[in-house]
Amino acid sequence: MDETPSITLLGVKIHRVDMAATLDLIRAYIASRKPHIIVTVDAAGVVRAQTDDEFRNLVNSADLVTPDGAGVLWAARKLGTPLIERVSGVEIARELCRMAAEDGFSVYFLGAAPGVAELAAANLATQYPGLQIAGTHDGYFDSSRDREIAGLVADSGAKALLVAMGVPRQEKFIRANMEQLGVCVAMGVGGSFDVFSGKVKRAPEWWQRHGMEWLYRLMMDPRNKIAKVWSLRRFVALVLKARLGKDR
């Protein structure tokens, strides 16, 4: 039974957690030796869930769903179900690696372009001495190889798996192969490996603190981020419609 407090935002479950509670749950998942799925949801994910039934069901059945984005926090406040704080995938991944170095469990890095996962893992291992890298593999493989790749993760003995293949591919890969992966915690982390490898720079702290990292990313990479902006417009419209319905 799920005892972690949660809200429902436009039909999507999101847990009311901060980073400290998230890390406590991850530590408990590792200790349980049973498989657990973590999903981080931003505004684009909520919009996708409106039309992708498989993705919505996957999110709503996950062990932990964290609010990844200022838009989600805004919407929760607007609809009268406020959340505590943003708990992003990139920050969870970083903190998980710090915890792994301290507690002695290993992490597998799966995804991104060839060479990026290896560099991301190496950089984090330098930052957190003692971090055990169970293995790495790029995300450039066809879905017909999913079981094969899941077997590689299982053979590595990893206790935690970070998957950087984009939404919803990463979450659907984890869900479909969770029993074969052999890990206690698996989470999709989007473009986090690009950040950890140094290939992509995060927004300056001021932008992050004011919930405007999405705008910084748009300015830095307008061609690849414009789809998220259109998704955000759809998200705002859905939230305002839901608010109007509550006020009637």
- Order of helix and strand elements from N to C terminus: EEHEHHEHHEHEHEHEHHHH
CATH topology of the largest domain: Rossmann fold
Rounded average pLDDT? 91
The helix fraction, in percent, is 40-55%
Number of strands: 8
The total domain count is 2
- Measured between the Cα atoms of the first and last residue, the distance is 34 Å
Strand content: 15-25%
Provide a descriptive summary of the structure in words.
The chain is an alpha/beta fold. It folds into 2 domains: 6-197, Rossmann fold (3-Layer(aba) Sandwich), CATH 3.40.50; 205-247. Helices cover 54% and strands 16% of the residues. It contains 12 helices and 8 strands. The chain has helices at residues 19-32, 43-49, 53-60, 70-78, 89-103, 116-127, 146-156, 169-181, 192-197, 205-209, 213-220, 222-247; strands spanning 6-9, 12-15, 36-41, 64-67, 106-111, 132-137, 160-164, 185-188. The chain has a 6-stranded parallel β-sheet with strand order 4-3-8-7-5-6, with helices on both faces. Helix 8 (169-181) links the parallel strand 7 (160-164) and strand 8 (185-188). Helix 2 (43-49) crosses helix 12. The longest helix has 26 residues, at 222-247. The mean pLDDT is 91.
Task: Write out key terms for the chains shown.
Rossmann fold, single chain, 16% strand, six-stranded parallel β-sheet, 2 domains, alpha/beta, two-stranded antiparallel ribbon, 12 helices, globular, 248 residues
